[in-house]
Design brief:
Number of strands: 0
Number of domains: 1
Shape: globular
Order of helices and strands: HHHH
Helix content: 40-55%
Structural class: mainly alpha
Amino acid sequence: MTCHQMVCHLNDSFQVGLGEKYASPATSLFARTVMKFFALYVPLPWPHGIPTRPEIEQGRGGTPPAEWERDRATLRALIPEFAAGRRFGTHPLWGEMSPRDWQVWGYRHLDHHLRQFGV
């Protein structure tokens, strides 16, 4: 994934989190309980290479990079909208989540990808 693709992936992911974009469910009891707890609340870095849903995967169904400044501006607008926490969708792996869980997910997911590119 390139840096530009990462920005588009984050845009897609935040839009799924806001309920604005569809991502096919792939949930299970294990994912909704154990995996969600460890991913959100155990202070370890997320591993790289974990597959994502096809609708937000770059090179597959995710939004392809277009214009860098526009894609970056979209992400900069989505972050405070997501942080405001007015509405959330359903997580494709972890199902329904509390606003607090969504906020932690947003931070951890953004941090995971920014660290991936040394930002």
